[in-house]
Task: inverse folding
């Protein structure tokens, strides 16, 4: 009897220790969530200096661990991009791309740990669209630096990644369709549009056209049309007429690329479901995604105080992001539910065993198991906080000399919410100038 | 052997085992986190599958031996009684990676100059610095040491080229085949005649592991 008591005491202390460990794991995830919100706020306020110092502070506090390196690099890449430090931005985005590649090899220990605690234990390996957008921002970095060769390398990478995704997603649907001998089910890639990016195709078409690769520009332009159609399906609106964008294929007809970003990436919230009866307690948590509505409904460009042109809404990255989450939702829910069931079943078994030996210790064990389930179950709310919500683009031909360009962000009533002035020097030899602006509200 | 002795032996084994583990942990903990070893620059180190120094070396070796042994060199030297003068033009990177082409073009320049069979002149970026220096000398250097203007050696041939790559990836992203083809050409500056075309192909197969520990 004496030795069994010692065993139980040891067991309880281990259980409590385990509870403390899981509590600390849960705490870390909550701290990362807070850090992400803080970063998002400073970035959307346009305070990039503060965003950079926040990221440095988070690194010192080890809030972004090795499993979160992709995110850490993506956030840095965008913050440095919009603060005009293009070399640093490219370096961080390169690192993010390499980390995404490295995360192809899944860690068994992390997978096991995530099944015992939560999905935050898994390495953040980047969504397919994030892997494409990072190349688009790198391409913009190179365009700012007038490094056309570097920009084209990124363009080719974007095209390759989109083609691969297209083969993967549409090819999978085709394969399922062929394998279905009943012919009853309709196999298609459905409304999931993660393999195409109108923003990336637009940028590629411009770069190919400007570097005298008309055939590549034509292909990208055709893909842009497809991407815009698919995107319209996603947003439930009339598809944009791609013929309005035909100018981008004629390199002599423009010398300035106008790019604006608005809005923010969707925000993830935790939703908890708790089920219990007299001797059973189950909690499972999953992320819920909500779009962050932008106040901007148009971007107008005034040139030299005379002509006004509008930028085209080319891509709604926030919708793509939400759509990807929608596609992954069943897997996330199933995993969360399974994990909760295992935790509940396991802790009930242990508590029962202790209770049979000693009723008081059983009560302690059931409290410890409750803390363990509460603390360890946590939705994975990690995401690319600084990714803008929408991309607006157009091209224009400016006359030689210094041109004053004003970008105005308009509300749905036509009120100017925010404006930015640029001075652009154009010579006879100017190949392509890039004007890039952001308003995250 | 009685039960007590057996228990003592098991306890002793347990402690020795724990001591070994602790010692191993202590040794591991005392090691620096990074270990640097100097290795032969000619050795092959394929860590990521991306373009690396080995690829650049392979290209340089192939191109140098090909360019210096093909008939254009002897023909020119025989007809002109002097080695040809080369200038390096642009080697365009048309691949999907950021490749510094200077790594192998500099190697080629070095081999050409050291062979004594080919002369090289500064390329467009390099010569601007030299021209600035020469212009500066006209006002600041002593008369005896001032270098003359308009005495540059004109190139007979320009070397240009490109790097292309084709990437083929399995749908599951596990296997990746990368094919690089590097083309270099020597073009007669006066006649536009191409006198030499060198090519080096490199193919790599990259297999990613699905799981790690």
Result:
């Amino acid at each position: 009897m004496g030795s069994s008591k010692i065993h139980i005491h040891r067991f309880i202390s281990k259980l409590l220790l385990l509870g403390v460990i899981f509590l600390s794991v849960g705490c870390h995830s909550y701290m990362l969530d807070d850090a992400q919100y803080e970063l998002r706020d400073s970035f959307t306020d346009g305070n990039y200096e503060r965003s950079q110092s926040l990221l440095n502070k988070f690194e010192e506090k080890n809030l972004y661990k090795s499993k979160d390196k992709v995110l850490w690099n993506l956030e840095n890449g965008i913050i440095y991009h919009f603060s005009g430090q293009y070399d640093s931005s490219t370096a961080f985005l390169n690192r993010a791309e390499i980390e995404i590649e490295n995360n192809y090899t899944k860690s068994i220990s992390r997978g096991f740990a995530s099944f015992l605690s939560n999905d935050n234990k898994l390495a953040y390996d980047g969504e397919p669209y994030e892997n494409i957008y990072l190349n688009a921002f790198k391409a913009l970095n190179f365009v700012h630096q007038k490094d056309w060769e570097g920009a084209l390398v990124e363009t080719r990478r974007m095209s390759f990644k989109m083609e691969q995704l297209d083969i993967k997603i549409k090819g999978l649907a085709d394969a399922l369709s062929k394998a279905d001998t009943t012919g009853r089910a309709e196999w298609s890639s459905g409304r999931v549009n993660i393999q195409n990016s109108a923003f990336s195709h637009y940028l590629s078409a411009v770069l190919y056209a400007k570097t005298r690769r008309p055939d590549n520009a034509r292909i990208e332009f055709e893909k842009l049309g497809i991407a815009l159609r698919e995107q319209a399906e996603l947003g439930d609106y009339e598809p944009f007429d791609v013929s309005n964008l035909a100018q981008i294929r004629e390199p002599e007809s423009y010398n300035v690329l106008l790019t604006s970003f608005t809005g923010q990436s969707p925000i993830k919230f935790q939703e908890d479901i708790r089920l219990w009866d007299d001797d059973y307690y189950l909690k499972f948590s999953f992320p819920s995604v909500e779009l962050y509505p932008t106040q901007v409904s148009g971007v107008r460009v005034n040139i030299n105080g005379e002509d006004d042109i509008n930028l085209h809404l080319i891509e709604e990255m926030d919708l793509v992001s939400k759509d990807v989450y929608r596609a992954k939702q069943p897997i996330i829910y199933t995993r969360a539910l399974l994990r909760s069931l295992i935790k509940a079943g396991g802790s009930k078994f242990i508590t029962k065993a202790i209770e049979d030996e000693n009723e008081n210790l059983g009560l302690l064990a059931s409290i410890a198991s409750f803390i363990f389930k509460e603390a360890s179950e946590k939705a994975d709310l990690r995401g690319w906080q600084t990714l803008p919500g929408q991309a607006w683009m157009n091209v224009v031909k400016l006359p030689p000399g210094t041109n004053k360009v004003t970008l105005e962000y308009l509300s749905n009533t036509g009120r100017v919410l925010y404006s930015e002035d640029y001075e652009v020097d154009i010579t006879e030899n100017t190949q392509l100038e890039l004007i890039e602006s952001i308003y995250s509200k | 052997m009685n039960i007590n002795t057996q228990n003592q032996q098991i306890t002793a084994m347990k402690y020795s085992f724990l001591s070994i583990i602790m010692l191993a942990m202590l040794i591991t903990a005392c090691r620096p986190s990074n270990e640097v070893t100097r290795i032969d620059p000619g050795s092959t180190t394929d860590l990521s599958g991306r373009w690396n120094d080995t690829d650049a070396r392979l290209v340089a070796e192939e191109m140098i031996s090909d360019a210096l042994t093909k008939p254009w060199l002897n023909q020119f030297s025989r007809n002109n009684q002097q080695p040809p003068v080369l200038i390096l033009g642009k080697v365009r990177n048309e691949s999907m990676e950021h490749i510094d082409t200077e790594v192998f073009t500099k190697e080629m320049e070095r081999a050409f100059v050291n062979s004594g069979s080919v002369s090289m002149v500064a390329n467009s970026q390099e010569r601007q610095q030299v021209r600035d220096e020469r212009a500066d000398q006209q006002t600041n250097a002593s008369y005896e040491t001032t270098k003359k203007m308009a005495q540059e050696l004109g190139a007979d041939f320009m070397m240009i080229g490109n790097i292309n790559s084709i990437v083929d990836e399995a749908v599951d992203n596990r296997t990746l085949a990368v094919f690089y083809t590097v083309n270099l050409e020597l073009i007669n500056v006066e006649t536009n005649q191409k006198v030499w075309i060198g090519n080096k192909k490199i193919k790599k197969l990259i297999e990613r592991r699905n799981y790690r520990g």
User: Anything to note?
Assistant: Chain B touches chain A at residues 48, 92-98, 167, 169, 171, 173-174, 208-213 (CB under 8 Å).
